[in-house]
Automatic annotation (TrEMBL):
Its cofactor is Fe cation. GO terms for molecular function: metal ion binding. This is Pirin. PANTHER family: PIRIN, PIRIN-RELATED. SUPFAM superfamilies: RmlC-like cupins (SSF51182). Fe cation binds at residues 60, 62, 104, 106. The keyword Phosphoprotein does not apply. Residues 50-121 form the Pirin N-terminal domain. Gene3D superfamilies: Jelly Rolls (2.60.120.10). It comes from Heyndrickxia shackletonii. Keywords: Iron, Metal-binding.
């Protein structure tokens, strides 16, 4: 039974992702969260959906934020300049805290065409100089909770009575929810989290407005930033469907995102480029 005493979420804004055909090796790319609208998405900066071959995202630096990379299909090889190496497959997620100075490569394995969703998650000013770290969340290690007609897989945060394994430096949730046709689910989130969703497959209705969204649709949700309780998003699947839902507490700081860096001022961006060219990010990731 629905609990009307808690904040009822609804769709705030929604859109369909538009794709660019880039050719080889970065075959196709689209913005799920467009970086020009980052203030609306706080604490998230952007989300890119990419299809690519090996050689697209070779050795490169980052500073000042975190990434959450969800593998939709194919095999993703991670290499960093601290000796880290791993291969992720469909349903796996990699969390990276770039912190002070990350230098890594994200490559398709062999001749795979890899399909990923990469979310950039901001760090508050107080955490931008933290130590670089990586964490792989393999699909089999993310707890699942069944419901009538579906299941929720929890990658991060406390959801549906379980805790996801992701160790983010800022409080976030990430869940993948799968439905059979006609199934319904009430997704409970902290009331003060800014949240968005992306439909991976099918067609679903969301919130009290019963807004219908389908594959490649993205949306932000209403929320109460000053609230301290729980909130609920009612979802009904019109067809067999799958959706990703992310949420986080807004940081409410000035943000400058330029190239591979996310800082609070342009001077800090320029310093990051100087540090990188001076070799302070360490050797290449090979």
């Amino acid at each position: 039974m629905r609990d009307h005493s808690i904040f009822q979420r609804d769709i705030k804004n929604h859109w369909n992702v538009q794709y660019n055909q880039n050719g080889y090796p970065h075959v196709q790319q689209g913005w799920v969260l467009h970086p020009e609208k980052q203030k609306e998405f706080d604490p998230f900066i952007l989300m890119a959906e990419d299809w690519f071959k090996r050689g697209t995202f070779s050795d490169h630096p980052h500073r000042g934020f975190q990434t959450i990379t969800y593998v939709v299909d194919g095999r993703l090889e991670h290499i960093d300049n601290h000796g880290g190496h791993s291969i992720l497959e469909s349903g796996d997620v990699q969390y990276m805290n770039a912190g002070w100075a990350a230098r890594h490569a994200e490559e398709a394995v062999d001749d795979d065409l890899i399909h990923t969703l990469q979310l950039w998650l901001n760090l508050p000013k107080s955490l931008k100089n933290t130590k670089t770290s990586y964490q792989n969340i393999y699909v089999e290690n993310a707890p699942e909770v069944p419901f009538d007609g579906g299941r929720i897989k929890v990658y991060s945060g406390d959801l549906a009575g379980v805790k996801g394994p992701m160790e983010s430096l800022v409080p976030i949730t990430m869940a993948e929810i799968s439905f059979s046709a006609g199934a319904s689910y009430s997704h409970v989130l902290p009331e003060n989290h800014n949240a968005f969703l992306y439909v991976l497959s099918g067609e679903l209705e969301f919130g009290k407005s019963k807004t219908t969204l389908e594959k490649t649709s993205a949306a932000t949700l209403t929320y109460n930033e000053k609230g301290s309780g729980s909130s609920e998003l009612v979802i009904k699947a019109n067809t067999r469907s799958k959706v990703l839902i992310y949420s986080g507490v807004p940081i409410n700081e000035e943000v400058v995102a330029y190239g591979p860096f996310v800082m609070n001022t342009m001077e800090e961006i320029q310093q990051a480029f100087r540090d990188y060219h001076a070799g302070k990010f360490g050797p290449p990731a090979v």
